[in-house]
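pasting for ref
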Amino acid sequence: MFVIEPLWVRLLGTLVFAALFLLFINPFFLGIRNIGNIAGTALSILGILFFAANPLVSKLLQKVWENNVGHVVLCGVIGLLCICAVGAVTISGFMLHAANDVPKEENVVVVLGCKVRNGVPSLMLRRRLDAAHAYLTEHPDVPVIVCGGQGPDEAISEAQCMYNYLTEHGIDEARIIREDRSTSTIENLQNAQDILHENDWGDSVTIVTDGFHQLRASMIADDLNLESDHISAKTSWYLVPTYWVREWMGVVYQLVLG
């Protein structure tokens, strides 16, 4: 039942999961460790073992299948995997839609925080700022709220770092408001909403973040009764799998506990 034939299929499966393993393990060496690459690495290893050692694995699974308790457990595992697969595909569809959405109106721009390294924006944060800069240049009357506090390993707050970058690249400092107390996406948007109300700017924003992050950010905005448009920054291809898997779990968490 669990035997995979012919041999080339096992070889192809092994190669696919080996490639995924490399994609998920690579961010560890860049200092990125989250539930996305941890789960992805673990599943990749299981996939490699299943395909590369299929004859041995299939015999083991067959013995478990023939046991009454084992049969129930395996059915449960297979069912759970099917549910997870359907959920992942469905969530990915919504993530892609949010990532490719474009602003429909001129609203206050909110740039969500990201890592600061040695006082300057990380690559991911710089790309968010470049995306925001392009939009702000095209819409010179739109203000921007830059969000993010200072982590224990950051020389300055994320908001201050973004402020420095945008002003150095020609954005008028009078257009930029720093929100430098938040430590999460939820706090980014909660504190940004307070700033909106203090300035009588309404409850509509244009969120700048990575494409993979837009769906969850918009869900949080909805929970806060904020109307949101999206500007998505580019993400390095080798980081997409890690953050995409992380967002699957983040979206589920937001749906259940948000």
